[in-house]
Amino acid sequence: MASFNIAIVGITGAVGQEMLNCLESRDFPVNELRPLASVRSAGKTIHFRNEEIVIQELTNNSFEGIDIALFSAGGNISKEFGKAAASAGAVVIDNSSAFRMDEGVPLVVPEINPNDALNHNGIIANPNCTTIITLMGLNPLHQKWNALNIIASSYQAVSGSGAQGIKELKSQISAIHEGKEIETNVYPCQIAHNVIPQVDKFLENGYTKEEMKMENEGRKILDNPSLKASVTCVRVPVYRSHSIAATVQFESSPNVEEAKILISEAEGVNVMDDPESGIFPTTLDTTEKDDCLVGRLREDIVLENSLSFWVVGDQVRKGAALNAVQIAELLK
User: For residue 43, what are the domain limits?
Assistant: First the structure.
């Protein structure tokens, strides 16, 4: 089997570290690993397959000889260095929103549209974490009944804000228990013991950028340009895993029992649904796990031809790092 020279841009972040874990746990054929970060982290080391590897400073010249470059350092870094990496011959798999809606850039969830990854011009985009997790539950149903509209609320872990979000929640919980003053830096108000109905910046239509990603990215991934989505994204004081409550209206009438079979037969997602026995997915059920879980499946009593369900997945893993590594696996 061929092996690949892999760069990880943003190696010190939560997703960068998880990309490293996924490469190792999935036994990806790595010939050379090149960890890249800002000048502040250059010279430090990371551990990979019983080896200590020195982190290098990210520059436009960092990608010579690299086959696949996994980016997770934010949109600005992707815009600044992504095309340089592609020009050097690397296939860029970008976890930011920098290229997702660009024409000619595939937006890929490997369980849903793997063939799109093979039709790239040097850059492949990783979708938004909430979109990935929602579509993992929705796609098996969409393939059967054709989704028309999505009404959803997300409950998003602080891991969605990266390592700093996790740090802020931990520090606020400690401060509360110790009777110290609460500091807020990442979020507009205290996140510990609280929920915040804002993820990303507000747009003129009253929705946030995060909320509109479900519609915009969902249309591209599902090849469903008429799909509509009304979403409310909420930040909750959970470290890992996002949860989404979704109601989906279909072109034809869905069936709950058939829906459970379709989801259970799909790759990367499982059914966990016996509410009378207290069995349904929670964030802890998916934390540090690959698969998404779906429960609370029921016919919606307001909209015709609709199902409501609850889907949970690890944002850092399937919502980001794992999805990127799975895309890389398609290129082998």
Answer: 4-126+320-330
What would the pLDDT profile of 51-96 be if each residue is shown by its tens digit? 999 999 999 999 999 999 999 999 999 999 999 999 999 999 999 9
Question: Sign of the C-alpha dihedral, residues 158, 161, 167, 173?
Answer: negative
Number of compact structural domains in the chain: 2
Active site residue 47: no
Q: With CA atoms as reference, report the closest residue to 71 among 83, 88, 53.
A: 83
- For 206, half-sphere exposure in the C-beta direction (CA atoms, 13 angstrom radius) is 3
Active site residue 242: yes
- Per DSSP (E only), the strands in 28-82 are 30-37, 45-48, 51-54, 56-57, 68-71
The CATH number covering residue 14 comes to 3.40.50.720
Catalytic residue among 22, 120, 142, 242: 242
Report how far residue 302's alpha carbon sits from residue 288's, in angstroms, rounded to the nearest whole number: 35
